């Protein structure tokens, strides 16, 4: 006959010479939150030019010590640095119809989203409202309200009703 006895977290099976130790369940890893202002760097980088359009990469690098999530499309609009700050011009970039891909940035990793812009001179002048020489992009991260202004030269239509660019999801 075999006897099983419990002794402070250890079960001993008498007669078989076996013992089992109870293991506490693993604690869940802390939830990874969105990339925050103090832990990221936002930049732009020229993409490929094309006939009648150009592209720019929007780069977000995790400069913190913990992982963070960067899921979705950024908000993007052309802007000009004036004596009173950055002034935005034209319509914000439309979001592509790509599905959101979960992006988790470990410390030092970079997420990228592509901005594609149609050259303003290709639009009817009345629709465009005039071409503005811009020197920056104003960027809002997915789910965020903080504004990032990064150097990025390009022309923009001044009309707020004419969408001339699209932006993809972060990858």
From TrEMBL:
Domain of life: Bacteria
Stretches assigned to the DUF4232 domain: 36-165
UniProt keywords, alphabetically: Signal
Segment forming the signal sequence: 1-28
Record InterPro entries: DUF4232
Key word Signal present: yes
Pfam families (UniProt xref): DUF4232 (PF14016)
Name of this protein: DUF4232 domain-containing protein
Organism: Kocuria atrinae
Taxonomic lineage: Bacteria, Bacillati, Actinomycetota, Actinomycetes, Micrococcales
């Amino acid at each position: 006959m075999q006897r099983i006895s419990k002794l402070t977290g250890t079960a001993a099976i008498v007669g078989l010479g076996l013992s089992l130790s109870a293991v506490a369940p693993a604690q869940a890893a802390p939830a990874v939150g969105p990339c925050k202002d103090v832990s990221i760097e936002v930049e732009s980088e020229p993409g490929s030019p094309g006939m009648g359009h150009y592209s720019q990469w929007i780069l977000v690098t995790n400069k913190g010590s913990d992982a963070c999530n960067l899921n979705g499309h950024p908000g993007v609009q052309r802007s000009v640095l004036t004596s009173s700050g950055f002034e935005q011009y034209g319509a914000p970039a439309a979001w592509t119809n790509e599905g959101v891909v979960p992006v988790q940035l470990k410390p030092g990793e970079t997420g990228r989203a592509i901005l594609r812009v149609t050259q303003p001179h290709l639009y009817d002048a009345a629709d465009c409202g005039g071409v503005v020489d811009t020197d920056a992009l104003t960027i809002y991260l997915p789910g965020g309200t903080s504004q990032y202004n990064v150097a990025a030269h390009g022309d923009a239509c001044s009309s707020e009703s004419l969408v001339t660019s699209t932006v993809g999801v972060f990858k």
